[in-house]
Amino acid sequence: MWIILGICLFAIIIITQLRFKLFYSPNVVRIGLIGTYQEHDLPQDVTKLISQSLVEASADGKVKPNLVSGWEVNNDATIFKFKLKDGLKWIDSTPVKSQDLIFDIPNTEVSYPDDKTIQFTLKESYSPLPSLLTKSILKKGTLLGIGPYRVAKIEKSRIFITKVTLLPPASAVSQLPVVFVRFYPNEKVAAIGFSLGEVQAILGLSNAKMFLNSHLVEIKQKTDYTKIVAVLFQTKDPFLSSRSLRQALSFATLQIPNEQIANNPYPPMSWAYNSESKKYLSNLTEAEAAMERAKSSLSEDKLHSELILTTTPNLETEGKLIIASWKNLGFDAKLRVESGIPQNFQSLLITQSIPIDPDQYFLWHATQTKTNLTQYDSKRVDKDLEDGRKTNIEDDRKAKYFDFQKTLLEDAPAVFLYFPKYNIVYLKKAESLLDKVLGL
């Protein structure tokens, strides 16, 4: 009988541990990430644990050397030569050679004059090229970095990675924990996995409200200045082709509460940010004035035609606020929620990635038909963007990007709302251990 009771008790303990992970190894960190990845595109949250980048960007967007001692560039910004620092070694103790590195940059020839030099030869001038080298380096054909961690094991479901095991070098075992990274296909599954105790932390939840009232859980928020939430207007739409009408909508759009406002396509700390450029959001007086200007070029029927704002489920709450603000101005505005990004839209509420460098050619130049979703076409903006990527002189670039912002915001092909938050949700009891890995 005692044997049967013992077996039953042991089974209960095993089931409880599997479900709630009550007992963790003392020097192990379990982290959850959201998204589907393969070995060739591991997210930066993982690669930064196993390596470093050739260059790094400061908060204002300026690029400085990291694993390179510096670089040279010719006058027309078509040839860049980067020099690796002395003594660099992969985590397996072999020396880092320039030929170990692979770069996939369109319209660029990469050559290696010697073991320490990497040369990029471009077909056209492109002064922001160093900003493309901020990803952690890995040895060609491997997942070897320069540390502090090495990839010990990768588990997959078909082609996608489900779990990665990272080990510190033997010399650092007492200082650094073993790291298990688990991947979840979406936020809902990730939140369930965290609640079941599969991981001690989830990185990148856009909505962490479900954990606000838990005394066991801590939530840290960081503003992600590499992304921007904006409403994009289809400038070729018969209704939205009027600049005054787009301005009216932009002025009427509500400032989203408790978010880091973005009244500009650049973060406020960027070296190219123009603080004197036009400001929109929550300004009904200016919205009504712009409406009066729009009436001179639009018929009464058009002014009262239907206006559709399309968005994805994770931005539905913000979409409802925007629709309400447009209705207050007299528009027949309606919200459409779709699971993916539509091919055709009138206006689109979306989160877009923005580059570290102020060069936003791919987002706003008229030739970029696949990424310029608004179909915005301005000869002045095109010229500013073309000239800004041709010169290496920062003051000249700044002048071009100041003019770019002034023109873009006056034309209002989009209204910029806020920079989204990056949430880290974690167990309070694991904070000191997680801090060694995540820098909480």
User: Helix tally?
Assistant: 11
CATH superfamily descriptor of the largest domain: Dipeptide-binding Protein, Domain 3
Tell me how many strands there are.
19
Low-confidence stretches: 5-24
Strand content: 25-35%
What is the CATH level 1 assignment of the largest domain?
Alpha Beta
Integer count of domains: 3
Please tell me the overall pLDDT: 90
Major sheet, described briefly?
A: 7 strands, mixed
Distance between the termini: 50 Å
User: What is the strand arrangement across the widest sheet?
Assistant: 8-9-10-1-11-19-12
Order of helices and strands: HEHEEEEEEEEEHEEEHEHHEHEEHHHEEH
CATH topology of the largest domain: Dipeptide-binding Protein, domain 3
Helix content: 25-40%
**What is Rg?**
25 Å
Shape: globular
Which structural class matches the secondary elements?
A: alpha+beta
Label the CATH architecture of the largest domain. Answer: Roll
Word description of this protein:
The protein has 440 residues and is of the alpha+beta class. The protein has 3 domains: 17-46 and 147-223 and 422-438, Periplasmic binding protein-like II (D-Maltodextrin-Binding Protein, domain 2, 3-Layer(aba) Sandwich); 52-133, Alpha-Beta Complex (Dipeptide-binding Protein, domain 1); 227-419, Dipeptide-binding Protein, domain 3. The protein has helices spanning 2-20, 44-50, 187-195, 243-252, 284-295, 300-303, 316-327, 361-364, 379-388, 394-411, 431-438, and strands at residues 28-34, 55-57, 63-65, 68-73, 79-84, 108-114, 117-122, 150-157, 160-167, 178-184, 201-205, 217-223, 227-233, 260-261, 306-311, 332-337, 347-353, 414-419, 421-427. The chain has a 7-stranded mixed β-sheet. The protein has a 6-stranded mixed β-sheet with strand order 14-18-13-17-15-16. Helix 4 packs antiparallel against helix 5 (284-295) and helix 9 packs antiparallel against helix 10. The longest helix has 19 residues, at 2-20. The chain is globular, with a radius of gyration of 25 Å.
